[in-house]
Specification:
It contains two helices and six strands; from the N terminus they run ααββββββ. With 188 residues, the protein is an alpha+beta fold. It holds the Pfam family N_methyl.
């Protein structure tokens, strides 16, 4: 007596269906890989923008925050942004740099408010030397009086610093920080 065994293997129709399903799945996976590869440079640009913004924000926050220009004789004792006995001897510190001051020298920014309105296209270090690979980026800084907890904007004791960095893909990163004045002045 012979036992009857069912045929083994695949039929032509089963094989064609398998190839079609695998082909569709591979096409979908390739589409995902292509879009992921095309967007893979974006995180690098974003990280670079963030690093530039953090560095510039830190630079501004580390500057003195005084009522008077830091070269004023009363810079450490002034209690108001006025030329008077209790204020500045000669020069009140206002928004933006004083004539001749620059981030790159020869007369350097010497106060937080000097950075108001500062911008650069192509990132440069403090000596004005372009940083390699960052020519497609730009940065700008705005400094404004701010309300911070119990400090009012009108008191002038708190500043909001906003740094905006644009990348080569036209995207932007905005970082904000604050700087407060210590009574009567911030030590140097």
């Amino acid at each position: 007596m012979r036992r009857h065994h069912p045929p083994r293997g695949l039929t032509l129709i089963e094989l064609l269906l398998f190839i079609a399903v695998v082909g569709i799945a591979l096409a979908a996976m390739l589409r995902v890989f292509v879009s992921a590869t095309a967007a893979s440079a974006d995180p690098m640009i974003r990280r670079q923008q963030l690093a530039i913004a953090e560095s510039l924000l830190r630079e501004v926050q580390l500057m003195p925050f005084t009522w008077c220009d830091p070269e004023d004789a009363n810079v450490l004792t002034a209690t108001a942004a006025v030329v008077s006995a209790s204020g500045c001897a000669a020069q009140v510190e206002g928004p933006g740099p004083e004539p001749g001051e620059s981030r790159y020298g020869p007369a350097y920014f010497d106060n937080v408010s000097d950075y108001h309105g500062f911008s650069m296209t192509g990132i440069s270090d403090l000596t004005g030397t372009a940083v390699s690979g960052l020519s497609g980026y730009s940065a700008r800084v705005a400094v404004a009086a701010a309300t911070l907890d119990t400090l009012t904007a009108a008191s002038g004791d708190a500043l909001q610093i906003t740094v905006t960095v644009s990348g080569p893909d036209s995207s932007s990163v905005v970082l904000q920080g604050w700087r407060t004045r210590y009574a009567p002045q911030a030590p140097f």
